[in-house]
Design a protein that fits this description.
Number of helices: 5
Distance between the termini: 55 Å
Strand content: 25-35%
Shape: globular
CATH topology: tt1808, chain A
Order of helices and strands: EEHHHEEEHEEEEEH
CATH architecture: Alpha-Beta Complex
Largest sheet: 6 strands, mixed
Helix content: 10-25%
Structural class: alpha+beta
Radius of gyration: 18 Å
CATH class: Alpha Beta
Length: about 200
């Protein structure tokens, strides 16, 4: 008799609330590095912040879009703005573009779908969450946002220098930084050109 070893799914531990980055379908997703905080090797502040590259990309893209869209009609939110999608799904967005007429600003998470969401890299720890890969997380979170009413999700990965373009009613695709990506009327993003204009090596 041959016994085939199967990989056991790790037991999901209770994650302290202050280490939770977001929730997806009832699953608490902690910050990357949370295990080092639990073991005392790092502080919470050391794992919460964005890298310098992530922070600059979010700023530059938000600035670029902000001077090209109709700001009487649209509002840009950033700084990991919270999005309450449903019970058990509270997401964080690097950049979210909302139609002003559909939102009311409060001290709670947004509960209306943005028109467009732009994400830079992944900030959650996938170990012990049941998600098998970064790609699984990107696809699951993006689909959850599309189901909520988001029209387009742009996901930028800095390690692979690729961009996922995920839309509700068109095929999803993957491109390089130098591809022109239509965002909104009169606003097309070419990340390579944006970085070149800012004289930033990448």
């Amino acid at each position: 008799m041959v016994v085939i070893a199967t990989k056991r799914r790790p037991k999901i531990r209770k994650i302290p609330a202050h280490l939770v980055y977001e929730e997806l379908d009832g699953q608490a997703l902690p910050y990357r590095g949370y295990l080092e905080v639990l073991s005392g090797k790092k502080t919470l502040e050391e794992i919460m912040g964005s890298s310098s590259l992530q922070a600059v990309l979010v700023y530059l893209i938000g600035l670029y879009i902000g001077i090209r869209i109709n700001r009487k009609k649209y509002l840009i939110a950033s700084n990991e703005s919270g999005l309450h999608v449903s019970a058990g799904s509270n997401l964080a967005n690097d950049i979210a573009i909302f139609e002003k007429g559909k939102i009311t600003l409060t001290d709670k998470y947004f509960d209306v779908a943005p028109k467009i969401v732009i994400e830079v890299d992944i900030k959650v720890a996938l170990e012990e969450t049941g998600l098998t890969s970064d790609l699984a997380y990107i696809l699951n979170k993006s689909q959850k946002m599309l189901d909520f009413g988001v029209e387009k999700v742009i996901w930028i990965t800095t390690q692979t220098k690729k961009i996922f373009v995920i839309t509700a009613n068109a095929p999803w695709y993957l491109v390089n930084y130098d591809e022109n990506i239509p965002l909104m009327e009169d606003c097309t993003l070419n990340l390579a050109q944006l970085l070149q204009d800012e004289e930033i090596d990448y």
